[in-house]
Design goal:
CATH architecture: Sandwich
Distance between the termini: 49 Å
Shape: globular
Order of helices and strands: HHEEHEHHHEEHHEEEEEEHEEH
Number of strands: 13
Helix content: 25-40%
Largest sheet: 8 strands, mixed
Strand content: 15-25%
CATH class: Mainly Beta
Number of helices: 10
Structural class: alpha+beta
CATH topology: Jelly Rolls
CATH superfamily: B-lactam Antibiotic, Isopenicillin N Synthase, Chain
Number of domains: 1
């Protein structure tokens, strides 16, 4: 049964939205589902080369990162320096957290009241995400009052966030250097107080396997590092104007470029639309680390004279997204900030 004590009222929300929609029967058409989806393996980058003493090996690894960021917007990494033990501990704590009763997750103030589920702005089923999550500002993870009864989560989350921060910055430095830009000023924009972690759980969905676990979107950061479920697939991305399913790799983390790096690189790096599909029988967990600047930071192109985007702050960008979601039910994103508009 999907509607047990720990689960959010997703079935109730879906039923309500379906009753309000004119498309009440053909779920596949409603969700723009594509049957027989091709499964792909993302480019795989061995980060051993990034820290090699051999200059050619470092250059080759950096080239792979930049090529995947330009051609795919997504890639997988192995030998990334984050221990399997830490990844396992974080997943164990995440599962324990989501097993708490729904009422406790919503009312206890856990992780700075960052718990959310579904999509409260959805006006039809295709805007509903069949998931629950804690979207946590890292500025709060040292606060004892955020954890309540989940005391063991604090130490693991701090260690995990610190490791992801260093890994994200290592990858970002490669992308910045590839464009011939100065690293110092850029790095000052992102630190442990400006980034976010999102703990995701996708409950089994009894309605249809064509429903979204997470609606199609691009990420609104510089880059994201995802520790996804090693065995339960669901992640899909847009490649060559069609959706492809990402084959899970139990040994790898997934990296994807966000909107801010696309704007900063003048569209050299691609922020690619992606989504998560549900599973009718088993739940799925993932953890995303978002490398973000402060809200006051200007996101200027490294090549200001030839930029196709006007300068904007991260705060402006987030505010525009919120306005568009409220008005249209979905994010518009970077097209709002083109010089020609």
């Amino acid at each position: 049964m999907i509607e047990c004590n720990q689960n959010p009222p997703l079935f109730h929300d879906y039923t309500k939205l379906l009753s309000q929609s004119r498309d009440q029967i053909d779920v596949k058409r409603l969700m723009n589902h594509e049957p027989g989806l091709e499964e792909c393996e993302l480019p795989l980058v061995d980060l051993c080369g990034l820290w090699s003493e051999n200059e050619e090996e470092r250059a080759s690894c950096a080239s792979e990162i930049c090529k995947a960021s330009s051609e795919w917007g997504f890639f997988q990494i192995v030998n990334h320096g984050i221990s399997l033990e830490l990844l396992w501990k974080m997943r164990k704590e995440q599962v324990k957290l989501f097993k708490a009763p729904f009422e406790r997750k919503t009312a206890s103030g856990l992780l700075d009241n960052s718990y959310r589920w579904g999509n409260q702005t959805a006006t039809c089923p295709k805007q509903l995400s069949w998931c629950e999550a804690f979207h946590v500002p890292l500025s709060k993870i040292s606060d004892d009052t955020c954890y309540g009864e989940f005391n063991s989560l604090r130490k693991v989350m701090q260690e995990y966030a610190s490791a992801m921060q260093e890994l994200a910055k290592s990858i970002a430095r490669v992308l910045v250097a590839n464009m011939g830009a100065q690293r110092g000023v850029w790095e000052d924009r992102c630190n442990a107080s400006t980034c976010f972690m999102r703990l995701n759980r996708y409950p089994p969905c009894p309605v249809s396997p064509e429903l979204f676990g997470l609606v199609p979107h691009t990420d609104s950061d510089f880059l994201t590092i995802l520790h996804q479920d090693e065995h339960v697939g669901g992640l899909q991305l847009m490649k060559d104007s069609k959706w492809v399913a990402v084959k899970p790799n139990p040994d790898a983390l997934v990296v994807n470029i966000g909107d801010l790096f696309q704007a900063w690189s003048n569209d050299v790096y691609k922020s690619v639309e992606h989504k998560v599909m549900v599973n009718q029988e088993v739940e799925r967990h993932s953890i995303a680390y978002f490398l973000c600047p402060s809200y006051e930071s200007f996101i200027g192109c490294y090549d200001e004279e030839n930029s196709i985007y006007r300068r904007f702050t991260f705060g402006e960008y987030r505010s525009q997204i919120q306005q568009d979601v409220k008005a249209f039910g979905h994010k518009v994103g970077l097209p709002r900030f083109l010089v020609s508009t």
